[in-house]
Amino acid sequence: MDDAFATYAWATDSRIECLTGQRFTEQYRRRALGDRWWVFDSAPTTGALTAVSLPHPARKLEALEAIPHARYVNGSDVKSMTTLFGDLEALDLKDAAARLAHPKADLLGASRTRMGRAQALMREFCARGVPFMLVASGAKRWVLNRAAVYSNPHALLSQLEAARATCALFAGPSWKTPSTQP
Fold this sequence. Notes:
By secondary structure, the chain is mainly alpha-helical. It has 2 domains: 3-101, putative protein disulfide isomerase domain (Cyclin A, domain 1); 128-180, no CATH class. The chain has 9 helices and 3 strands. It has helices at residues 3-20, 26-33, 43-53, 60-72, 81-90, 94-101, 105-124, 147-151, 153-166, and strands at residues 134-137, 140-143, 168-170. A 3-stranded antiparallel β-sheet has the order 2-1-3, with helices on one face. Helix 3 crosses helix 7. The radius of gyration is 17 Å and the shape is globular.
């Protein structure tokens, strides 16, 4: 992270906040964007989401809301296992927190599989960054226009409505329709 990227990220985050209402606080700006040793690493967050989805697949959306809140609103380091453990504890997902604190082969394997699927899909569809939203209908798959997420949310909603009418929608490889949940 350097000054130029931090400035770019904050400008983008500010635009996202105006368009979506997602909060990005000064704590986040100071702690995350101000930390020149900060690196992008989604593995800890993936591990936390996997720790939730193994015993509680229906609750992974709660974790998926809490973790970005910890980062963008509280300015917390979501690469820190202590932070992620606390987030899961706060959601009363003590078994998932314990699983994350002392990972066993099932969690490590499921996390690696999830990241591998995500990387393979991103390579297949030449996707760079997030959000990466993929629609699947039978054997046919296509990427939704992610630029619409921030520049024209109404266009994105139109894409989602069209997909919902005819397809199973999932955002990235870790999301499945309810009928295909493990």
